[in-house]
TrEMBL record:
<dbReference type="InterPro" id="IPR010807">
    <property type="entry name" value="YfgJ-like"/>
</dbReference>
<dbReference type="GO" id="GO:0016874">
    <property type="term" value="F:ligase activity"/>
</dbReference>
<dbReference type="InterPro" id="IPR029037">
    <property type="entry name" value="DUF1407/YfgJ-like_sf"/>
</dbReference>
<dbReference type="Pfam" id="PF07191">
    <property type="entry name" value="Zn_ribbon_6"/>
</dbReference>
<keyword id="KW-0436">Ligase</keyword>
<protein>
    <submittedName>
        <fullName>DNA ligase</fullName>
    </submittedName>
</protein>
Amino acid sequence: MSENRCPDCQDELSWKDGQYYCDACQHPVRKRAFCPDCDSELEKLQACGSASYFCNSCNELKSKSRVRVVFEKA
Ligand SMILES: [Zn+2]
Ligand SMILES: [Zn+2]
């Protein structure tokens, strides 16, 4: 099951031109991640094929399972 859903229609998003895209609504969708502790936007780090998230405010890595992910219209 995919966790990438359109914020408008809840349809599954596709990957297009380096960003998420909703085929139903025909608009790109941005994925943003927020710190579970301080609510700052997290920086996504790509390491060895798996993504991790870094909080510049807490100055530490955040576990992917705790990160709050928000999809919004780009
Ligand atoms: Zn949609
Ligand atoms: Zn933080």
